[in-house]
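Internal QA ticket QA-208
Title: Verify multi-chain structure generation after dependency bump
Assignee: T.L.

Test input:
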Amino acid sequence: MLRYILKRTGGILITLFLVSIFIFLFIRMIPGDPARLMLGEKATPEAIQAITQQYGLDKPLVTQYVIWMKGVLVGDFGTSLRTKMPVLYEIGLRYGNTMKLACLAILWSVVAGLIIGIWSGTHASKWQDYTGITVSVLGQAVPEFWIGLMLILVFCVKLKWFPIVPTGTLRGLILPAFTLGAYMMSTVARFTRSSIIEALKEDYTRTARAKGLRERTVIYKHVLKNSMIPVITIVGMQFGVMLGGAVLVESVFGYSGLGLLLIESINYRDYTMLQTLVLIFSLHFVVINLLVDVLYAVVNPEIRLD
Amino acid sequence: METKNILEVKNLCTYFFMDSGVVKAVDGLDFVLEEGSTLGIVGESGSGKSVTSLAIMGLLKGTTGKVVEGEILFDGRDIVPLSEEERRRIRGNEIAMIFQEPMTSLNPVIKTGEQIMEVIRLHQGASREEAKERAIQLLKDTGLPRVESMFDEYPFQLSGGQRQRVMIAMALACNPKILIADEPTTALDVTIQAQILDLMQRLKDKVGTSIIFITHSLGVVAEVCDHVLVMYCSRSVEMGEVKTIFKNPAHPYTRGLLASIPKLGEHVEALESIPGNVPNPKFMPKGCKFAPRCKEAIEKCSQMEPPLFDLGGGHKCRCWLCEKEAADVRSSGDGAHGDCGDGGGRTSAGGGVNE
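Actual output:
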């Protein structure tokens, strides 16, 4: 297992290196000049040139990349073109917020999604199933920003149960986390449902029943473990997306996380910030992928022992 | 000699209720299983033999199938009306089953040993240690090598034959009175098949269980069964003792099945086969279900379905050609054929039993 993880880590480094090249090139393809955006409409050409030179934006792309990479390798990700602060400092301010929000969202959505999915899957084509399907279709179909706005309207404005502007406390996190997790909950519920329906048709389920096991034991001991692989996959992927900052949810709730930072950085063509953010998001993805693969092995002995 | 019937199936009707209509998977089936004997149920795919076994096990829940009529007397008690909880206590305990597909019938993510221990602990309330001891003994009885290490392995680490042995150990864990084996050797290599059949015979004598052996192979029947029931299109078409059926098959379908077995040392250009296919259950022929494929069919065959004629000595046959012969035999058990729901007439119980 350890050898496997080490091998995978090598792959992760290569992936990140390739991502760094692509992101470096791609953001420079977006029309718009950071220096001009920084200085405004009325800036003189001299001032723009001065800024361009100051940040080395006039150098050839390869040189710029090498300079950036040299810094990255020693942990210096550069200074934000927009705020003139180190990018890691800016990210650090918001990273915890995004992490908290994503974790809380994933937690409730996985728990609720599993409950609804098991409930639906074990009562396929009965009213319980239709209720479950309705809830999960709603969760996927209703846009996040609308859920967010409605929650603010009802719980913050009318009922005054929650602060309108999230304070970083758990109380302030509840509504954004609920909104962010709604889609995820539906996805987990749907995958769990179909996975359980499949597993219920399997021969080993028939064997379990033929042994005279209680239906509860059949479901929770024999069926559930077998139906978790697709669910783990989808949770992993979604978690990666959430850690990339929930742009809509953060905007609606005015929540200071990586999503808002990303949007602002794009608006200002804050190259250094964008490069670092995308690199971090990619890192999230590959690390979560690795975790998911390790989890597969935990669930499925055939993978574990190979 | 008076023998006890451990299982009596009377006028069993199992229908599947689909959106497209009702499929009569088993329609008015009667047979008995004598204590300590082996009954073979033979038939093509879709003849209702597997559904019969699921009905006896009470495993139709969760499908669209339902026992709509008839009785299943287990040890003299009708188990059809029992609650799910009561059926559950019988399943795996007094009536156990092994399935056709050893490769997929064990749970891939649970250790082999645990899967056997589970059933012992459930029905016998044994402690973990007792259950483990018993499970290991069971596995040893099936002739598996390196049982102790296999105990902590997962099914994917075992071969098909080994898995089927594990299934057998699991089924026999609670010394069941009846073991239903649904084509237990079909998916295995020929050499392994023989070993598994041998094992089942040996354990049957040891445990004293009665066996219902579902198969489409008459060769297997000849080897392991005492009585045989031939099914065609949800009905029994012939039943009796194995040697009677093999020596003197009465139904053209049974004769067709026997003719399609290759014989050792005999060179033939082409094996006999029964022409045509099993009819679609939604468009059953009016008279005898086999008539459209039958070489010997007479006019009557396509008009009226024959009842199960008693040919004496427990030998029964659902064919008009047997009418004369049956009339010569004084029988207590011939009668109307067993259509469910429309008149309630049914064949008497009696399969392969001497009455």
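Spot checks passed. Chain B is about 30% helix and 20% strand.
Status: verified.
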